[in-house]
């Protein structure tokens, strides 16, 4: 679903969150499809495995469905991984709600009713702006 009118990033960020999440790309709002069982399970297992290996050793953190706002876009990859030293912990040592940085690793899981071109565009945007690894999983 796409909005009919052009928005600024600031206007978009003031809107209430939607379920499923909406993304801001090139002035338009796009609502992601609702994840289904296989998609959700793969997303959960991916984040669990990465965090099992990398969190206790303070190498990285993986997040499912985390909004990342950077370089004029606000996207919600299916999974985002951040190197430990780049996680923007707040003054209390907690993970903040807003991540205004690119992920180090972005993962998109293609849903049956999702367009590959939009998902690939988000991965390429991430890679252009500092992301080191981008995965597209199509099962």
Describe this structure in words.
The chain has three helices and eight strands; from the N terminus they run H-E-E-H-E-E-E-E-E-H-E. The protein has a single domain, classed as Alpha-Beta Complex (tt1808, chain A). It has helices at residues 9-14, 37-54, 116-128; strands at 22-25, 28-31, 60-64, 68-70, 73-75, 79-83, 105-109, 133-137. The mean pLDDT is 94. The longest helix has 18 residues, at 37-54. A hairpin with a 2-residue loop joins strand 4 and strand 5. It is α+β, with helices and mostly antiparallel strands and 139 residues long. A four-stranded mixed sheet has the order 3-6-7-8, sandwiched between helices.
**How much helical structure, as a percent, in the residues?**
25-40%
CATH class membership = Alpha Beta
CATH superfamily assignment? tt1808, chain A
Query: What's the shape?
Result: globular
Short description:
With 139 residues, this protein is of the alpha+beta class. It has 3 helices and 8 strands, in the order H-E-E-H-E-E-E-E-E-H-E.
Question: What is the strand and helix layout of this fold?
Answer:
Blueprint: H1 9-14, E1 22-25, E2 28-31, H2 37-54, E3 60-64, E4 68-70, E5 73-75, E6 79-83, E7 105-109, H3 116-128, E8 133-137
Parallel strand pairs: 7-8
Antiparallel strand pairs: 1-2, 3-6, 4-5, 6-7
Which features characterize this protein?
two-stranded antiparallel ribbon, four-stranded mixed sheet, 27% helix, 139 residues, single chain, globular, 24% strand, tt1808, chain A, alpha+beta
